[in-house]
## 1
Amino acid sequence: MLSAFNDAFSLLETLDANLLGIVLLSLQVSLTALLVGCLLGMPLGAFIAIQNFPGRQGLIVVLNSLMGVPTVIVGVVIYLLLSRSGPLGDLNWLFTPKGMILAQSVLTTPLIAALTRQIIEDGWRIHGETMSALRLPIVAKLKWLVWDCRFSLSIALLAGFARAISEVGAVMIVGGNIDRVTRTMTTAIALETSKGDLALALALGLVLLGVVLLANLMTSIIKSFAERRYG
Amino acid sequence: MDKDLMIDLNNIVIHRDERDILSISAQIPRQGITAVIGPNGSGKTTLLKLLHGAIEADSGTYKPGSTDLESALVLHHTPLIKASVRTNMAIVKDSLGKYKITEDDIDQALASVGLTHLKNQSALKLSAGERQRLSLARAKCQRPKMILLDEPTANLDPSTTEQVEAIIQQMANDGCGVIFTSHHLGQVQALADRIVFLNEGVCLESRNTRDFFEQPQTEQAKKFIARELGWK
C-alpha cells in the first residue's frame, strides 16, 4: 500500500501525461457542465422563486427530487437519447466529451436551480416589497436579487461543481471511458482500481480531492471577503 | 380646493383575511404635505400602497390612478442589497418610470441628502438615518410628482429626524406632493398642511392640521390625540 502511495506521488511529481490528460478532460467537461447548469439553472430557480404560477409547487418538488437522482439513471436516459436510434442520435455525441457535458449538465442544472430557488426566495422575502415599490420589472428584480445573493449563490455553484466532478455513473455510460478520449478522473479511478493499478487511481483520487478542496477554499475566501466588505 | 389638485378616493374597499382593512371615501391634496395618522392597524400603510399601485382595491375607484399620480413610495422598512451605496442607488435606473435616470441624477440625489461622501461604502454599514436618507434619495431620483412615506422617521434619533424632516420639507417646497404616515403628532403638527385620520380602516376625518388638532370632530380622533399627546 505504501509503495502505491509512493508511485502515486511520483506520477504527480512528474506530471504524467496520461494523468494530466485525464485531469484536464475532467475539468473541461465538469466546468462546462457547471457553466451550462448556471446559465439554465440560475434564471430558472430565480424565476420560480419570485413568480406565482399554476404548478409552481409541483415544479419545486420535481427540482428538489432531481437534485438526488442517481447519476446512472441520467446516464442511461442520455445514452438512449444520444444512441443512433434515439431522438438526438444525429448529433453523434455518444462516447464524446460533448455527450458527457450534456449528461453532467442534466445533473447540475436542477441542483443549481433548486438551490438558487431557495436562496433567491429568501432574498425575495426581504427585498420583494421594496423592489415592487420601486416598480422594477421582473428581469430587474431577478438581476438585483441574484446580485444581492451572489455570495450565497457561490454555494450553489460549488455544489453543482462537486456533483459534476465527482460523479462516475453518467460519464461512464455516455462517455464509454475511452482512453484519451472520454476517460475522466472518476471513470479512470474505477477502471484502474479494478485492474489493480492503484498508483494511478490514488494519484487521480488525490487530484480530485485537491480540486474539490480548492473549490471549497475559494468559496470560503470569497464569502469571508464579502462579509468583511459588505457586512 | 381645485378638484384637479386632489386625489379622489370613492368607496374604496380593501378586504383581507375576512375583514375590511381599508374602507375609505376621501379627498387628499396632491400638493403640500398631508399626514395620514391613526392607531396601529388603521390602514395607513395600506392607503399608501394603494395610491402607489402596489396593491389593488377590491371595490371602489380613485382618481387619478397610480400611473397618473407618478408617485414614489418609501416603505417603513427598506432593506438594502449587499453592495455599495452607489449600487443601491443604481437600482432605480431599472425602474419603470417616465424618465431615464442617469448617473448625474444619482449623484445629485446623493448630494441632496448629504451622502456623497459615503457613495462607495457598503450600504449595510449605514446608520438607520443614513439608510433612510438613501431611500429618500432613491425616491427623488424617480422624479415623482408625489412621494409617499411610511413612517419616515420611526426609530430615528431627534437629530436625524430633523435632517429627514428637512429633506421632506424641501421636496414639498420643490413642488412634490408629500403624503406621510406618522405616530409622532408633534412632527405631524410641524410638517403637515392637512390630516387624514384613519380608524379601523375607515377615514373619519380629512381636514387641515390646525382644525383637526383644535377641534377634532369625532370621539375617536379626540381619544387618539389625547392618548398620543398624553403618552408623549
Note: The radius of gyration of chain A is 20 Å.
## 2
Amino acid sequence: MASEDIYQEFIIELWKHPRNLRRIKRADKDAEVYNSACGDRIHLFLKIKKGVIEDASFEGIGCAISQASASLFTGFLKGKKVSELDMISAEDVLALIKIDLSKNPTRMRCALLPYEAMKKALSKSYSKS
Amino acid sequence: MLETEKIRQDFPILREKVNGKPLVYLDSAATSQRPTQVIDAVSDFYMHRNANVARGLHKLAEEATSAYEDVRGKVRSFINAGEPEEVIFTKNSTEGINTVMRGWGEKNIKKNDKIVTTILEHHSDFVPWQQLARWKGAKFEVVGITDEGELDMTDFEKKIKGAKIVALSAASNVIGTISDVRKIARMVRDLSHENAIIVIDGAQSVPSMPTDVKSMDCDFLVFSGHKMLAPFGSGVLYGKRELLEGMDPFIYGSEMIRKVGMKTSEWNDIPYKFESGTPDVAATIGLGTAIDYLNRIGMENIRAYEKELARYALQRMGEIDMLTILGPHDPGKRVGLVSFTLDDVHPHDVAAILDEDGIAVRSGHHCAMPLHERFGIPASTRASFYIYNTKSEIDALCSSLKRVRKVFS
C-alpha cells in the first residue's frame, strides 16, 4: 500500500490539527487502551448528560491512524445516546477513517483503538455525574 | 572489511521483493537472516539423519547424538568455556535467564538480599529478577544510564555493594551500548556479596564480537541462535560447573534424570540436568553450522564491520533534520544498531513508510519499556545491521527517512 493510500491529506491534516484532543475534567466515563505492539495509546473521555454524550475527547500518543481515528470518533460520539453506543460496530468506525485497511490488520487495530477505549469505558462501573 | 557481496549470495531471502521493492532488511536485532548453509544443514538432518538424541542404540540415533554433542564442543570453543558440560542447550536467551532465576535464584536469594540489574535490559533480563525479588522480599535495584546511554558507573558501584545477583546485558538491543563486562565483573567481585553471581545477557553481543567467558569472568552467559544465523529454537546457557551442579533443575522429566523411583528421583549430571524433554535437535545442528560460518568470517572482523556500518549510519542519520539518535554517538561504544526518534512523527508511522520502500525496521518499545520511560518516549524506531548489510542500504534508509519527513510536513 502506497503512502498516498494511507497517509492521505486529511489524515496528515488531523495529525497536525487534531480535534477534541483534551482531557475532560470529571468525565463520567473514561478508559485508556495501549497497544504495546506499536506504542499507540488512547485515553478516551465521555461527558454524559441525561443519557446523551454531551462531550467526547481524547488524550494520547500514537501513530497518525490511531490519532486521526480518535479525532473523528470523538466527533462522531457527540450527541449520541448512551443506549445507542453498543450498536456501533467496528465497520462504522472504520468508515469514518475512509481508508481500506482490510489487508492491513495491524493498522486496523490502530484505527479501532478509540473504539476499544469506548467499549472499555462503558464496561466499567458508573461514576456519579 | 567483509566480502559482503559474496556473503549476500548465501542469503537467498535478500533477493526477495517487498511492496515491489528489493528487501532492505535492517531488523537483524529482532532475528538474523539464515544462510543456505544453515538451512541446508537442517534439511539434510531431517532428510538423511533424523533421530532422537540420547535415546536410541541404533545407528541413526547414535549419529544424531554424536552430531548434537559435537555442537556442544563447538559452542564451548566459540565462547571459551572450560568444559562442554558447562554448555546447556536452551531454546533462547529468555529460557536461559529463567533457568538461572529458578535454579539458582530461588535457592539462594533470601529476604532483604539484593538483586541488581540495569535500565538497559531487555524484559527477559529484567522481569525474572523483578519477580524473584518480589517473591522473596529481596531488594530490586536498577542501575541508571548517562545521557549518552552508557551505564552510570557511579550508580553501579553504589548499587552493587553487597548484591547477590548482578544481571546485565553485554550489549543493549535498543541503544547498542557495549558494557565493559570484564571491568564490571572485577567490581562485582570486589564490592558485592562473596557468593554473588554475575549473569550476562549476551543475546546482542555474542553474534557481533568475540566472546570469552573466562576473561569476562561471568558466572552465567545466555545467547540465542536465531540472532546469529542459526535456526529459531537454538540457544545456549553457559554456567560455571560448580554453580550448575549446585542448582536445582528448572524443568523436570526425561533426560534430566538418572533414576526415577516411585517416591524419589535422582538427577542426571550436567548438562543433561537442564536439558529435559526432546530438544530441538535440528536447530542445534543448525547452530553448529552457523558457528562454522561465523568463524570462517572471524568474530573480530564482524565486530570491525558492524562498527563501520554504525559509524556510517550515525554520520548519515546525523544529517537528517529533527532526527534524534538514542545512545552513544561513538561507534566504538555500540554494536551495529541505531534507534532513533524522528521529531513528532510516531515510530509506527516511520516504520510503515519505510516498509513501503521495502525497508524492514522495528518500531515500538523493543521489549525495553523501562528504558523508553527513562528517555521519556513511548517508542522508537530501530535499524539494526549484520554481516550482509551494506552502506548503500543505509543510504536507502536515509532517503526513505527524508520521505517520511515530506509526508508529515
Note: Residues 4-30+298-407 of chain B form a domain with the Aspartate Aminotransferase, domain 1 fold (CATH 3.90.1150.10).
## 3
Amino acid sequence: MKLNPRESSLSLIKMQKNESDALETRDQVFENYFEQYWALVYQLLARMLGDPDEAEDVALETFYRLYQHHPDPEPEFHIGGWLVRVATNLGLHAIRSFKRRQGYEFSAGKTNLNETAEDLPADILEVEEDRRMARTALAKMNPRQSQLLVMRYSGMTYKDIASALNLSPTSIGPLLLRAEREFEKQYGTLVQEKR
Amino acid sequence: MNKHLKDSQLRAALDGELDAAARHHLDSCSACQARQRMLQSQVTATAHRLAFLTLEQKDEAPSSQMSLKRFYSQKIFEKEIPMLKKIYTSSTVRFVAGAALILALIISIPATRALADQVLSLFRVEQVTVVPVDFTGMQELTGNGALGKQISELVSSSITMDKKPGNPIIALDASDASQKSGFMVRLPQNTTSSRISVLGNSAFTFTIDRTKSQALLNEAGRSDLVLPDSIDGAVVSVTIPSSIQADYGSCPDPSTYDSSQRGSMSRQYPDCVILSEIPSPTVKAPANVDVAQLAQIGLEFTGMTSDQAAAFTKSIDWTSTLVVPIPKNAATYQQLPVDGVTGTLIQRPADDAPQFVLIWVKNGIVYAIGSLGTNSQQAIDMANSLP
C-alpha cells in the first residue's frame, strides 16, 4: 500500500510521537532506578575507593552505563545485580587507573605516609595503609574474583552474588574460597614488596 | 550424608549458606569441624583485611535527587548533547566548554520562576567571533579540583531541564533529516554520509545567584571582579532546537564512543569529517542583565586586562554573536569566505584531537565542520558544495 504525502507525514509524525513517548517512559524508568539504587551504588564505591569524590564520579558513570543500556522493565533483568556488577567493575578499573595516573604504589605510599605522619596518629595511618594494600591486591587480581570478594564482603548473599555475576548459587562457595586464597597471595606479595 | 564436606562447603557454612543436609553432617562430624576451624582462621584474616567494604547503616550518600540533577548535567549534557560533540572532545573545545562554564557561572543558578515575567531580551546567533584568551591557571575550574567541583555543583544544582533532547535518531538522507529535525537540512551532494543522526530539541532554565557566583569568583582569587547586584535572581532560559550531525568517513559511534579515550582518536578515525547543523539556539534573559558587562568580567577572569576586555566587549554585538574563546598559544584562527558568507576556521596543531573546526552562520542556521584529519581544504570544499 502506498501512502499519499499527507498520510506519509502523519505516519511520520505518529512514529516520532511514539518514539518520543517511548523515550519519556524510558527516562521515567531510569529515574526510578536511579532513585532506588543510587545510595547502594555510591556507598559500595565509596567503601571500595575510599574517596567520596571519586566514588561519586564512578557512581554517575555506572548510571550512565545503565542509561545507555536502556533496560526495559523486564522481570528477568536483575537491575540491582547488574548495577553492582558494573559499579564494582568500574571501581576496580578506577583503582588501577588511579595507580597508573599517580605512578605510585608503595614508593608513593611511603612518601604519603611521611608527608602525613605528623598530622595523623600512627594507628590511623596503619589502618589506611592496610586498606590501601587491600585495594591494590584486589586491583591485581582477576576481575571476576575481585568482584566476588567485593560483593561478598559488602554483605551480599550468595544468591544475589550469583544473580549479579550470572553464576549458579552453588558455585559461589568454591569460587569464593579460591578468590580469598588468591587475595591472600596478592596481599602477601605486597607485604613482601613493602619490606 | 556420611561423606566429609569439601572445603568450599565448609566455606559456605561460615557464611550460613550451607544446605540443610550438609549442615546436619557438619554438626555431627568432628573431622569436618576441625577442618572448618582451620579454614575459619584463614577466612578471618581476609575478612579483617576487607572489613572496610562492609556497608553499614550509618553510611551516607549524596541525595539521589541532587545526584540525578548532576547526572543529567554532567553525563547527558557532556556526552549526549550532540552539537559538535566529537569535535568538541578536542582540547580546543574543552577550553571553549571551560569558558562556557565560566559564563554559566556568571549567569547561573536555581529557578525562581516568579521573575520569569520580566521583560526579556532575546539573543540569537547570527555571527561568530573568536577571542584568543590565556587559560593558564584556569584548568582547575573545569577539572577535578575543589573549585571545579563547587562550580559544577553550583551549575548542576541550578539548572532546570525543561525539555530533554532524548537519544539521537538515525535519518536516511537530507530530506528525512529535515522532516525529523524540523528545519531545512543541507548536505553535500557529491559525497555520501556514513551516518546522519538527529537530536531532539531541548530547553533549560537557570536563575542567577549573585551571592554564590561572587563567592566562587572570590575563592578563585578574583575578588577584584564584582558582579552587579542587578543580576541577582534573574531567570535565563535557553532553547536549543533540534540539530543534525552527518558523519563522513569512519567516525566514532556516538552511542558507544568513550570520550575518555581521546589519545588515539586521530589514529582511529583519521578520515572522519563531521558536519553539524543547528538553527540558532536562543537565550532569553531579563533586559536588566547587561551581557556586555558580564562578558567583560568573564574576559578579565580569563586573564585579559581591563582595557583589553573593554575594547573587545565594545566591538561585539552580544545579542547576536557567538563568541568562541580559544587558547591563545595553542590554536590559530582565520576568517574566510565559505557558503556565501564569512566563516571562521580554527586550527589546533596536535596529534590527539581534531585539527580544525570551520564554523559559519547562514540564514539563522549555525554550521560547523570538524575533522580529526589535517585537510582543512576538505571542509572548505564541503561547505562550498552545500546546495
Note: Chain A touches chain B through 52 residues (CB under 8 Å).
## 4
Amino acid sequence: MRQAILGDDSLTFAEKVISLRADGGERVRHPGDITILPADLAMAQDSTGPLAIRVFREMGVEKLWDPSRVHLVIDHTYPAADEKVANLHSFMREFVRQQGCHIVEGSISHQHLMEHHIVPGMVLFGADSHTCQGGALGAFATGIGSSEMAALWSTGKLWARVPESVKVNLSGEFKKGVYARDIISHFIGMVGEDGGNYLSLEWKGPSVKTLTMASRACISNNSMECGCKLSVFEVDATTEEYLQSVNRKPMSEVHAGKKATYRDEHEIELGKLEPQVAEPGNVDKVKTVGEVEGTPIDQSFIGSSTNGRIEDLVVAARILKGRKVKAGTRCIITPASVNVFEQAIKKGLAEIFLESGAVFTNATCGACVGTHLGVLGENEVCISSSPRNYMGRMGATSAKIYLASPATCAAAAIEGKIADPRKYL
Amino acid sequence: MTTSTILRGRAWVWPDDVNTDIIIPFRFKARTNDPYEMAKYAMYGFDPEFYKKVKQGDLFVAGRNFGGGSSREQAPVAIKYAGVAAVVAESFARIFYRNAFAIGLPALEIPGISKEVKQFDELEVNLQDWSVKRLKDGRVFPALKVADFLRGLMLEGGLVEYYKRHKSFPWDQLKTAPTTH
C-alpha cells in the first residue's frame, strides 16, 4: 500500500502524507476526511508550553508517550526579561527534568528543529503557528494549541483533517533587491490574510530550484500569515544537499502526483516583483516599496524565525557595511538561532552591525512579539522583517509596524525612513 | 463541567480579522499561566477595560477570520474566562477554531452573521441544533455543520474534562469509523 500511495498520480502532498501515516496507512484519504495522525515530533515553546504542562497535569496524565520525540523550547522571551517570565521558564525546566524530554534554550524553535531534527516525510506538530516552516524540508509540519499538545503528549496521536491544496508556480529570476520574503509578502497580498486558511500550499515551478533552503524556510514560515495548515517544498537537489550537510536522511520523499486536484493555482513571476512592504495593521496590506518610501521610522527590526537566518544577516550586512544607522533611529538585529549567531560572528557580520550602530542581540523571538529587546512605545513606527504587523504586536497598541525583507529594513535603518534597498546593493 | 445547550446573552459585535494579538497581546499572556489573569487582558487591543465591561454569559459575534495569527490558546481562554459563553463568527482561523473546541468554548460558524446582529442584541445560541436565534424577531441562523466528535468535545467542556471522564480523547473513537468523503 505504501508504494501505491507514494506513486499515486492523483494525490497531493498532504493527501499522500496523511494516507501513508493515518491509522497505519491502509487507504487513500481525501480532503475533508478526519484522520488520526501519529506524530514523529512534538514541540512547545515558552509561551505555549507552560499552559500545555498545566493541562497535561490537570488531565491526570503522568508520563509523556515518548520523551525522545518531545521538545520544549525556551525561545520567545530568552533569556527571561523579568521575574514572571523566569518563573514560567523554571516551570518548564522542572517538567523537562521530571519527564526526560528535550529542552532547547536560546534558539527559535523552528530554526532549531530545522537545523537538528526535521526530515522529509516527517509528521511534526508544534504549539506555535509558524511550525509550518518545516514544510521547507518536505515535512508535514503544522501548528496547534496547548491543550491539543497536552493530548498529543499523552498518546502521540492527534486528529487531522485532510486539507485541500493550492499550487503556486514560481517562474523567472529575481531582480536586484528582491528576495524570498517579497514572494511570500506578494502572495499574502494576493490571497488575503485568510486566503490560505485550512489549506496546504505547494510551491512549484521552474524557479523553486533556485531558492536556497533558507529562502524556502522563509516562505514556508511566513505562509502562516495567510492562515495555511501546510506550506511545502518537495524534496529536490537543494533538500538533499541540506540534509547531507546536517547528516540526516528522509523518512520518505513525498512528491505530489502530476494529476493531483488543486483548489486553486497561482502564478508568480519573480522578475516582475519589486521589494514589498505590508502596511500597519494587516499582513495583506501589501504595497511596493516605492508606494511607502519616505515614511519616517523609529526602529528597524531584522530577525525572527521568518527572516533571521544567515542569508538574511548577510544581506543586511551588505547594506549596512561602511554606513551608519540614522541618528535617532534604532536598528535591532536578532538571529534565529545560536548557530546563526555564531556564523554571523565568524563571518565578520557582528562587527559590521556594531560599527553601523545597530544592536546585535542573542537569538530569540524578542522584538517580534513585543516581549523584550525592542518593544515599541506609544505611536512609534517600526519596519520589521518579522511575520506580523498587527495592532499591539510589538508593544504599544498605537505603535505602527511595516513588514519588509531584511534588505528593505536595513535600507530604512540607514535613512530613518522607508527606503528602497536597491540603491545600496 | 458540562456546557448548557441553550446560551442566552447579549452580543458584542466585532469586525473581520480580529487576530490573536488583539485578543490578548503576547507580553501579557507570556507572563502568567492563570486563566483568570489572562481574562484581564481579553480584547485588550480594542479596549483595555473590556474585562470590566463584559458580563457573565455575554456572546461574541464576529466577521471573517476570527482568531487569526498565533497558536496561543490563551486567546480563547481569555475570552472564556472573561465570561463569554460562545463565539459566533463568519469564519474562524484554523488554530483558534481547534483551540476553542479543545478548551470547551463554543465556536459556531455562520456566514453573514455579523451583518445580522447589532451591538448588544440579545441572542440565543443553541448547541444542540447548532444555531443562533435573534431574540428581537425570532429569526434562526443555522451554523455550518461540525464533526460530531468536536461538538461532543465542546459539550463536555473541553479536553481536560473529557479526558478526566473517559480516560481517552474524543477522536480515539474515530479510528474505525468510516470517513466522510
Note: The first strand of chain A starts at residue 34 and ends at 38.
